[in-house]
Write a structure and sequence with these properties.
single chain; 16 strands; 7-stranded mixed β-sheet; 5-stranded antiparallel β-sheet; 26% helix; alpha/beta; elongated
Length: 303
């Protein structure tokens, strides 16, 4: 089939490679524009852009498309059978949604209608969902509201992080989009019940509120790894919490360090043991190594 591919982050790359390897004609790849990155803040193409260049595929990187009629016309001129959209990052207007003969097919990282929106994997881990999955959806003008073509579930393990679930879903999405294009399954409307929303995340979403139970905080650490990152404060300085696990606690003010191995009191008499941490500008290290260089005696209160 003659396709456009629209995506930006690393999550989207396996689908691009799978479509290329399957022999589909990718007439154009759309990706977010290069942005400053790294210590030198050099303009750097996003992962999809880099992968497209490696594959010898043409790339467009418009900063916006919603009201740009020239972009609409350029897209229509591609004469597409379909467009595959995976975490592109820009909202497509009606003229672009309707231009391909089979429409714009989205690989969405949840079991719709649960977790529509920008951060479905984080949301599923944070909520303690037992499973998540991939939905292949024909896009409409709503926010992840279009009819479904394929759905497949995968369990979320009790210690899974967003990174682990992300990688499984990325490969699953690549496999399912090939099926959707080959089989052209009938579109099924999303159920009216059970819709939830996963908004775009910011740094503040990683803050640990020690008044919450340890199980909730454990999920936040796993959900926010690696970005935006879970954190607390130690002496007014940010302390990232990279790994932690619930442990037996005792009644104490939330945030109080209970022993000499970073066991922290949480809400409801529970406790969370911090097992891997990182200070700003320093290397990540396990708790034992960290405590050899930083004294945090019992009774210290984390903010």
């Amino acid at each position: 089939m003659r396709l456009a591919f629209m995506g930006s982050p690393a999550f989207s790359v396996p689908a691009l490679r799978a479509l290329h390897e399957a022999g589909h004609e990718i007439a154009m790849v759309y990706a977010q524009p290069p942005r400053p990155a790294g210590r030198g803040q050099r303009e750097t193409p996003c992962p999809v852009h880099q992968a497209a260049l490696e594959l010898g595929l043409p790339v467009r990187t418009p900063a916006r498309v919603r009201r740009d009629e020239a972009e609409h016309e350029a897209f229509a001129a591609l004469d597409l059978d379909a467009a595959v959209v995976v975490a592109y990052g820009l909202i497509l207007p009606r003229p672009m949604l309707e231009a391909p003969r089979r429409g714009c097919l989205n690989i969405h990282a949840s079991l719709l209608p649960r977790w529509r929106g920008a951060a479905p994997i984080h949301a599923a881990v944070l909520a303690g969902d037992a499973e998540t999955g991939i939905t292949i959806m024909r896009m409409d003008e709503g926010l992840d509201t279009g009819p479904m073509l394929l759905r497949e579930a995968v369990p979320i393990g009790p210690r899974d992080t967003t990174v682990q679930v992300h990688d499984r879903l990325s490969e699953m999405g690549a496999r399912l989009i090939l099926r959707a294009l080959d089989e052209d399954p009938p579109a099924v409307p999303q159920p009216a019940e059970g819709a939830t929303y996963a908004p775009k995340l910011g740094k503040e979403d990683g803050r640990l509120d020690w008044r919450e139970p340890a199980l909730t905080l454990d999920r936040r650490v796993r959900a926010m790894t690696p970005w935006p990152g879970a954190y607390t404060s130690l002496g007014g300085e940010a302390l990232r919490v990279l790994e932690a696990e619930p442990a037996t606690g005792r009644e104490a003010a939330p945030g109080t360090v209970l022993d000499d191995a970073l066991l922290v009191a949480c809400g409801g008499g529970t406790a969370l043991r911090l097992t891997r941490v990182q200070r700003a500008g320093r290397a990540a290290m396990d708790a034992a190594a960290f405590l050899r260089g930083t004294a945090i005696p019992p009774g210290t209160v984390l903010g």
